[in-house]
Structures are given as structure tokens and as C-alpha cells.
Design goal:
The chain is 23% helix and 30% strand. The protein has 362 residues and is an alpha+beta fold. The chain has a domain at 51-291: Sandwich (Jelly Rolls), CATH 2.60.120.200. The strands form three sheets. Strands 1, 2, 5, 6, 8, 13, 14, 15 and 18 form a nine-stranded antiparallel beta sheet that branches. Strands 3-4-7-17-9-10-11-12 form an eight-stranded mixed beta sheet, with no helix packed on it. Strands 16-19 form a two-stranded antiparallel sheet. The N and C termini lie far apart (162 Å). The model is unreliable at 1-8, 10-39 and 316-320 (pLDDT under 50). Residues 52-288 form the L-type lectin-like domain. This is Lectin, mannose binding 2 like. It holds the Pfam family Lectin_leg-like.
Length: 362
């Protein structure tokens, strides 16, 4: 018994205690690495060498720190938008409201993916609700207007979650019907690229200018609804997860989309005679790193105006700059001098013509 309490026994217990501490430290370190790996570190997505990095300056999640109306906030509210504990409400279920949420930091990423967690719900029954929400990547921010609460003739990309079929209701009022291949089922997701020359046709639900779209039943669901916008190698993809299965489903895929860098992300909504609650739960932007060949590097140079290959957008005509006071004075002065000079030349020619006429008469 005394031998077990001697130096050897003391050393054995100390060694076992250190081993337990080492094992516990190793488990804690492994847990820390797992947490870090599931957070901001790079994560491989899709086929090929594609990794994503969460960009906090362009992302928004609970508890919604950095949201406000001050110039120092990363996200600015506009209109009737307000911060709640579980979401940011762009518009309440009330008539004639509009609100928006805009990122203050311009995005200079080359390839990116925006994941939007949203919720649309209200008291309105079928086709008695509206109007929907929009996700933006545009040159201008905080510009209220008629296009889901944002300005018309915007410059950039707009993705619309439209919940009210304006065109269909007009057709019904005129007692006309669509052919089965033309009619769209609402709610409907569509995308539009604009260089500032196109106007969104609200009466036709943006049909003349849409790049593509799909039906998305997103109202009054009891599970989470998500939308993802991915822009990689001039390729625009819009997918949705609205079935509660945690699976992305394709909606829009358009190659040859050219978007400039340095634009702003935002989201907006509007209600009219019909209304809904339009809520944003989170916005998460990921930088995507992809490999490019030398040929792709040449083709994917920066652009300064949005465009889509094989789609002709009207060119903008820049207005002439106003004339300064000195320029206007010089124009008027030389115009008067030229007029006086022309009158003098005319009188001289007239007198010579009269003299020649008199000589002929005599």
C-alpha cells in the first residue's frame, strides 16, 4: 500500500491527468477548427476549382447590426422599411407602402453569389395580394420609384419576385385569353439587365424585357424560402429553394451577361391597392474564386455598361452639356457680326446689279 503512494504512484496519476488534459485540449481544438471551417473559411462549391468566401461587408443577418439611416451604417433603410427582431420588413401588409434596403459598400467582386432568405405573407386571398419584391445590383442606390419601389430605367441587374399578374387581369377585363404556351403562373420570378435605356413595363409584368423566368409559389409558406443569384464567368444563374427540401431548383440561366464592377446590392418592395408583408431574413454574399484560361481572361475584361450577348439594348444618347455665359455671348456676337457682314455684301451686290442694269438701258 505504501508503494502505491510513493513517487511512482504520484507520477502515474500526474501522467494520466496530463493525458486527459491533452485529450480535452485536442477535442476543443478540433471543435474550434470545425466551427471556423463552417464559418468564414473557403469552401468548395460545385464542380471544378471553385471556392466561396463570405463577404461580411456585403452580407446581412440577425441581429442586424450595422443597419440604419446614418452614413456610417453598412446597410441603409429607405421608405417604410423597418428592422424587426427576426427580419427586416420592407413593406407591411398595408396599401400604398414602399421600402428598400441598400448596401452602402460598392461591390468590386468579379464572380459572386448572393443568397437571399425572404418571406412573403399576408391576409390577401388568391390574386388579391401584391406586388412583390426585387433584388438589385445597380449603379445607383436609394432611388425610390415605381419598379418594386426602385427607380425606372435603372442601370444594372434586377431580379423580381412578382406576386400579382397585372397583364393577366387586364386580359380578363378585355375578355381575352392567353394561349397555354404564353400564360405565366404567378408568383413569378424574372430577371432584367438594363443600361438605363429600358423602361420596366409594369402593366405587362416586365415581359418585353425579361431574360427568363419561372413560377415560384412563395406566399404564406410555413417553411423557409430562399433565392440565390450567381454570377460566374459572365454566366447569370438564378435558383430557388421554396419547397422546404433544402435543394436548389433551377429558374433562370443566361450566358453572356456583362455586369460592371462597383455597383450596389439592394432589395426593395412596393404595395398598391393590394398588399403583403415583404420580409428579408438574411442576405449573404459570397466571393467565388474560379480558374480562367488566358483566352477567358481576355474575353472577361471589365465592362462599363451592362449588356447581354445576342440581345440588343438601345444605346443611350448623352444630353449636351449646358453652354456657359461666355460661350453663349460669343455665339450671339459672331452671329450678329455674320448677319451684318451678309447684309453689307448683299447691299453691295444689289448696287452693282442696279448699275449694270442702267448701263444696259442707256
Amino acid at each position: 500500500m505504501a508503494a502505491t503512494l510513493g513517487p511512482s504512484g504520484w507520477w502515474w496519476r500526474r501522467w494520466r491527468w496530463r493525458r486527459r488534459l491533452s485529450a480535452w485540449d485536442g477535442s476543443r481544438m478540433l471543435l474550434l477548427l470545425l466551427l471556423l471551417g463552417s464559418g468564414q473559411g473557403p469552401r468548395k462549391v460545385g464542380a471544378g476549382q471553385t471556392f466561396e468566401y463570405l463577404k461580411r461587408e456585403h452580407s446581412l443577418s440577425k441581429p442586424y447590426q450595422g443597419v440604419g439611416t446614418s452614413s456610417s451604417a453598412l446597410w441603409n433603410l429607405m421608405g417604410n422599411a423597418m428592422v424587426m427582431t427576426q427580419y427586416i420588413r420592407l413593406t407591411p401588409d398595408m396599401q400604398s407602402k414602399q421600402g428598400a434596403l441598400w448596401n452602402r459598400v460598392p461591390c468590386f467582386l468579379r464572380d459572386w453569389e448572393l443568397q437571399v432568405h425572404f418571406k412573403i405573407h399576408g391576409q390577401g386571398k388568391k390574386n388579391l395580394h401584391g406586388d412583390g419584391l426585387a433584388i438589385w445590383y445597380t449603379k445607383d442606390r436609394m432611388q425610390p420609384g415605381p419598379v418594386f419601389g426602385n427607380m425606372d430605367k435603372f442601370v444594372g441587374l434586377g431580379v423580381f419576385v412578382d406576386t400579382y399578374p397585372n397583364e393577366e387581369k387586364q386580359q380578363e377585363a378585355q375578355k381575352r385569353r392567353y394561349s397555354p404556351g404564353v400564360q405565366r403562373v404567378f408568383p413569378y420570378i424574372s430577371a432584367m439587365v438594363n443600361n438605363g435605356s429600358l423602361s420596366y413595363d409594369h402593366e405587362r409584368d416586365g415581359r418585353p424585357t425579361e431574360l427568363g423566368g419561372c413560377t415560384a409559389i412563395v406566399r404564406n409558406l410555413h417553411y423557409d424560402t430562399f433565392l440565390v443569384i450567381r454570377y460566374v464567368k459572365r454566366h447569370l444563374t438564378v435558383m430557388m429553394d421554396i419547397d422546404g427540401k433544402h435543394e436548389w431548383r433551377d429558374c433562370i440561366e443566361v450566358p453572356g451577361v456583362r455586369l460592371p464592377r462597383g455597383y450596389y446590392f439592394g432589395t426593395s418592395s412596393i404595395t398598391g391597392d393590394l398588399s403583403d408583408n415583404h420580409d428579408i431574413v438574411s442576405l449573404k454574399l459570397f466571393e467565388l474564386t474560379v480558374e480562367r484560361t488566358p483566352e477567358e481572361e481576355k474575353l472577361h475584361r471589365d465592362v462599363f455598361l451592362p449588356s447581354v450577348d445576342n440581345m440588343k439594348l438601345p444605346e443611350l444618347t448623352a444630353p449636351l452639356p449646358p453652354l456657359s455665359g461666355l460661350a453663349l455671348f460669343l455665339i450671339v456676337f459672331f452671329s450678329l457680326v455674320f448677319s451684318v457682314f451678309a447684309i453689307v455684301i448683299g447691299i453691295i451686290l444689289y448696287n452693282k446689279w442696279q448699275e449694270q442694269s442702267r448701263k444696259r438701258f442707256y
